[in-house]
């Protein structure tokens, strides 16, 4: 069994690394656990232009590398492991991983959420090469190009409206014959001259050699197959997928309070229903999932973990 740490952070994305930085600077013994490489969703972002103070041409990987370096400079440690079992009932929290078992006085869950894919052939291979799950992150790359938005809920329609700031034409593709978004959002979309609609359709395949070049749609009512090819002068177009997110919180079900979709419920101080357990970033219930809000969550969670140890475990 490992020594008892002050805090273990589950997840090495912006929320986890921000928590790690603040915890380590507060002289807490800090371990960041990540099942893969650090970074989360941002490592697939070619440019981070909406993070305050980011340098010109800063990429997701560059920003994450610097965050990780800062954590280590202040004494945080980083391990790759997948947590398979947790016990957070007592004052000492126990996490069992595939490689080792860990103990800590507090836990910060920063496990993130993953965009729900549509599951079409070619989708995975062309992520970051025309396929995107974040209009705020990547909309600017499609200035004066055409884009397709897959989905019909609030997020899809709101992001379609946002994308009209960049793209010359935005087409919403929805599997039903009417949108699921709030009526007020729908009205804005219908009034926008740049927005078009393809109803009752799904994406069958996304094609391209290193970049999106065409997309195949299937009409669910007629089974008609239609392939849209990129404009010859453009050479490509964007496909933005907004069919929901999947929070990486399965292991905490039945232990940590969540909403009906699996997002962890916290208060403004990132506290969960379990004393000594905090949550930060995309895995928790919140209105905006961006690097800047994840970093803020992580900082708050670390400070609250420090206060919990000082005041509750003293």
Automatic annotation (TrEMBL):
Cofactor binding, note field: Binds 1 FAD per subunit.
Keyword Flavoprotein: yes
Reaction(s) this enzyme catalyzes, per UniProt: [thioredoxin]-dithiol + NADP(+) = [thioredoxin]-disulfide + NADPH + H(+)
InterPro entries (UniProt xref): FAD/NAD-bd_sf, FAD/NAD-binding_dom, Ferredoxin-NADP_redctase_2, Pyr_nucl-diS_OxRdtase_2_AS, Thioredox_Rdtase
Keyword Flavoprotein set for record: yes
One cellular component (GO) term of this entry: cytoplasm
Domain FAD/NAD(P)-binding: 6-298
Top-level enzyme category: oxidoreductase
UniProt-listed Enzyme Commission number(s): 1.8.1.9
Needed co-factor(s): FAD
GO molecular function per UniProt: thioredoxin-disulfide reductase (NADPH) activity
Keywords from the UniProt entry: Disulfide bond, FAD, Flavoprotein, NADP, Oxidoreductase, Redox-active center
GO process terms (BP): removal of superoxide radicals
Signal sequence residues: none
Pfam families the UniProt entry points to: Pyr_redox_2
Taxonomic superkingdom: Bacteria
Family to which this protein belongs: Belongs to the class-II pyridine nucleotide-disulfide oxidoreductase family.
Subunit note: Homodimer.
Protein name: Thioredoxin reductase
